[in-house]
Specification:
Elements: E1 3-11, H1 15-29, E2 31-35, E3 38-41, E4 51-60, H2 64-77, E5 93-99, H3 114-117, H4 119-128, H5 141-147, E6 155-158
């Protein structure tokens, strides 16, 4: 049975290169990809180069654990150092935000808490799934974005050409 997943992508080391590499890999492992705009934002939690972030929706037959394992493999193949501290520069960061409307703590927390706290996650999620309902708050992602305090974090869309996706 297929699940609809939502993935947060971020990078601040050669970000255009690594975002494109991640999209290519994701299109290989998952089907029916839908990409948000790409957003640029200042680093959160540390001083560093600006990040590029986006959210991608996809379909998968994999379990949550298998999806997370695919993400870790893609990150490592693209220069991510395992065990690097949370607030630091990174070539690639892939996080599972949603797996259908599942709410759980293991093997990862779903829905991911940063959906409600980080503009660079919520805005692109609201862009590609505005009417989808957050399984805990009961609000649509568009309504959560409308209510979000936009003075908390500066971000803006940038021109970005997504690579040609492989069809699965």
């Amino acid at each position: 049975m297929s699940a609809r997943i939502f993935i947060s992508l971020g990078s601040n080391i050669e970000p255009e290169h690594y975002i494109k590499a991640a999209l290519s890999e994701l299109s290989y492992h998952f089907s029916n990809l839908l990409c948000s705009s790409v957003f640029e934002s200042e680093a959160v939690g540390f001083e560093g180069c600006n990040f590029l972030n986006m959210v991608v929706a996809a379909d998968t037959e994999l379990s949550i654990s298998e999806v997370v394992a695919v993400f870790k493999k893609i990150e490592q193949e693209n220069g991510r150092i395992p065990g690097a501290k949370k607030f630091s520069a990174r070539s690639l960061d892939l996080d599972l935000l949603l797996y259908d409307s599942l709410v759980c703590q293991e093997p990862v927390e779903l829905p991911r808490a940063e959906i409600l706290t980080n503009a660079f996650v919520l805005w692109p999620l609201a862009e590609i799934a505005p009417q989808l309902i957050h399984p805990v708050t009961g609000q649509s992602y568009q309504s959560l974005w409308d209510e979000y305090d936009k003075t908390r974090q500066k971000l803006w869309t940038i021109p970005f050409t997504c690579p040609q996706m492989a069809s699965s």
